[in-house]
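OP here, attaching both records as promised.
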Amino acid sequence: MFNKRVVEKILIFSLLILIAGCAGSRVKIGELITNPDKYNEKYVTVKGKVTQTFSIPILSIGVSKIDDGTGAVWVKPAGRTFFDGQKVTVSGTHKIGLTLGGQSFGNIIVEGEKK
């Protein structure tokens, strides 16, 4: 029979895996840039510092570039605004070649969008 401690550790480990899976798999931005097809239309999480913003207020469209030290990617926040220098974590669907307001973005994460 299983030791009670072993069962507790297995349950805790399983719970942590489940929680991590729900949040989207955390990916280094450099990995998204190197292997965009692998992550295209996948729900991912990235964390980094905002280095640039682009917005079209009339259309209520805004995107920000996030850099994690391995690379930078554009993100389209959902219902919030990012500011230069801010550290953020974003979970959403990674897309290749999205165009917003006539501006083309090679790799972009659409926050909150889940396929």
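Record two, same layout:
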Amino acid sequence: MRASRWQSFNPLWNTLQNFQGEMNRLFDRYNEPFDGPAAFPPVNVWEEDDHLFVEAELPGLDKDGLEVYVRGGNQLSLKGVRKAPAAPKKGLWHRQERGHGAFERVLTLPYPVDADKVDARFEHGVLTLKLAKHESARPRKIPVTGE
């Protein structure tokens, strides 16, 4: 009798894992409201210590035309209106890629934040938010008792 090595299901398992990864990427794309071809404003989100930072590019806006809301503890909403560019008086548009009009971008934050402890700065067309983690989202050291 010839001994044969048992073939595992690794090729099938790898294929299923790749499929799951692709499905996760597909649904992650639709986790936020659809804002057209590209979400506006583009944002960077990062975490340091007990704070979450959000940076949004908002060229051409002024701080008076911008609204920032924290809802439900972990929802951040950026609203505003970009003015339409002035039409050329004697020229002809060849390309117009910069959008205009009202926008709202809603981000689901990775944890709840304290809406009363938000620092918002708007300089050179960039909005920078510093949001403090809510007390419930901060790690707590648990005392261990026993021998």
